[in-house]
């Protein structure tokens, strides 16, 4: 589900876009190729870093020692 703040942002985005006058942006033409490549590379690095952090945080920590008891409602303990 989308948080309410994001929905509000998406609803107000067309209003903000309608208030901009054409040509009011100075120097906002197409991006140069080195800048575009740098942005894509930075995005890939950050995405990879997020995946690695999530993987490291979600991996199992190691199995607890088996004490011979059967735990019915505890997955991984019996």
From TrEMBL:
It is found in: Membrane. InterPro entries: HCST (IPR009861). GO terms for cellular component: membrane. Keywords: Disulfide bond, Glycoprotein, Membrane, Phosphoprotein, Signal, Transmembrane, Transmembrane helix. The keyword Signal applies. GO terms for molecular function: phosphatidylinositol 3-kinase binding; signaling receptor binding. The chain crosses the membrane at residues 35-58. One of its GO terms (biological process) is regulation of immune response. It is a single-pass type I membrane protein. Its main location: membrane. Residues 1-18 form the signal peptide. PANTHER family: HEMATOPOIETIC CELL SIGNAL TRANSDUCER. Belongs to the DAP10 family. This is Hematopoietic cell signal transducer. It comes from Camelus ferus (Wild bactrian camel).
